[in-house]
Amino acid sequence: MKPTLVILAAGIGSRYGGLKQLDGVGPGGEAIIDYSIFDAIRAGFGKVVFVIREEFEDQIVSHFDARLRGRIRTEYVRQEIHMVPDGIAVPSDRSKPWGTAHAVLVSGGVVKEPFAVINADDFYGPQSYRMVAEFLSSEAGDGDVYCVVGYELSKTLSDFGSVSRGVCEVDSKGDLKSVVERTEIERDNHGIHYRTGDGQQIALTGQESVSMNMWGFYPSVFEFFEEAFARFAKEHSHDIRAELYIPSVVNELIQNGLIRVAMLDSTEVWFGMTYKDDKTAAANRLRRLVDEGMYPENLWA
Asked: Is the pTM for the entire model greater than 0.90?
């Protein structure tokens, strides 16, 4: 069974200042998400599921339907604020989606096969897709063993502002021991550091392995995510900024001994579109990759 690629594309891009999911950075006007799908097809994925919001559904469908027709099956799933368990009141002034864990959960209606999860605005590199596809094929049948692709922290930072990363700890077997979401990670003249909730600055080496939200799951994970989000929504529905992240759910499941997550170390250099100023750097990197022959000049010609 070919795995499915679930693309989290419902973010509102507040720091970027626009619909970065479709912003053209490739030589032919391709978005980063185009390269992700191209790499997934080459790695053997059989379907792509876009998790989107209604307000820009038409733009995303229009962009991809013609490009992907005949190349890979596509599905579109909405992630909307009102999608919460019965009895939960959603604040009228909430505008943010409920987070990446909720995005995974809403894809469950159309995902019945092993699947990978990625962010729409991150470039992961072809090696990473091959590793996840091979893992999901080789581990088929053991639905409680998942995987995550790890990158060296220093290779995942933006030059234009702070970022959030899931900092990973791995045990002697190569399994994920814990993953903790760290926010406001940045590099300055004093090195790399993040800030805690109370404003304390904590140093990092830059060699830490971090999750960039590239996960390999089986459909068995949806039950776990449903239970986690139900608890979260009950406790935090009044908070208009509260979000439930994939690393938070995975970390809790690991600590409770319910799942195993294998760490797949990628040697790829990640890049993304967190800030508007990241666009030029992303375009330059893609230009070099095309010149090196990794991608065609026009991706979907």
From this structure: yes
